[in-house]
Amino acid sequence: xxxxxxxxxxxxxxxxxxxxxxxxxxxxxxxxxxxxxxxxxxxxxxxxxxxxxxxxxxxxxxxxxxxxxxxxxxxxxxxxxxxxxxxxxxxxxxxxxxxxxxxxxxxxxxxxxxxxxxxxxxxxxxxxxxxxxxxxxxxxxxxxxxxxxxxxxxxxxxxxxxxxxxxxxxxxxxxxxxxxxxxxxxxxxxxxxxxxxxxxxxxxxxxxxxxxxxxxxxxxxxxxxxxxxxxxxxxxxxxxxxxxxxxxxxxxxxxxxxxxxxxxxxxxxxxxxxxxxxxxxxxxxxxxxxxxxxxxxxxxxxxxxxxxx
Length: 309
Fold this sequence. Notes:
eight-stranded parallel beta barrel; disordered C terminus; alpha/beta; TIM Barrel; oxidoreductase; 12 helices
């Protein structure tokens, strides 16, 4: 009887099981200046965690490549941003790609328009970058997604251009060998994100979705970044929290958002959200610790002696 009871307990799913499944294989974003503050990423992240490197306007390509080289040496696949609107011309893009590949063995890239309103060179969209053919040979290419729309792309408040761009990218994926996925802006409410993902599927856009999640941070910090990044209606979650005196001084954590997405995915195995991508707005260490505490360790930091079975 005791053996039977033990087997039942072992088979019973953990309350965290859906969250653990969603967080497995998560990715995280850094910038060269934030990466400099981390002595060794192996102390914080599971082996093989994909690390995006955000290319903010004004960041020298030398710093981007050096960060990619360092992370690659520590055992993390890197995915630098290629923002179309800060690329001067085709020659510049070719030079960046050659540096990344030659010096840091980069094989992945996030191709996006970038946050600038006006292009600084010949490109204004991610589609133009993809059309150059210069990313041939990359193993994985991710593109941007906007669950709440983008006023930069659709100033009229619709999502007509955003959806048209995603259809183009779906067609591009179908005619190339690269593994592609959609990496999205961060949001704060699960229901609109779920509805957006299901709409994409209904429209024949089958690219896997890596949903953006804002990592733990002070509420004031979160609101500042949400405004700067153009977060849409789901920002009401933060506004409501700001009005609650009992929560005003507590840090925001993405627990409710992650739990909502995870629960839906557990019930709908064909759901298009494949993974999560963290924006560590409150710091890389804080974000990594939150993921670990919530079962998101898809591996073990390389400098730890314990090995998972």
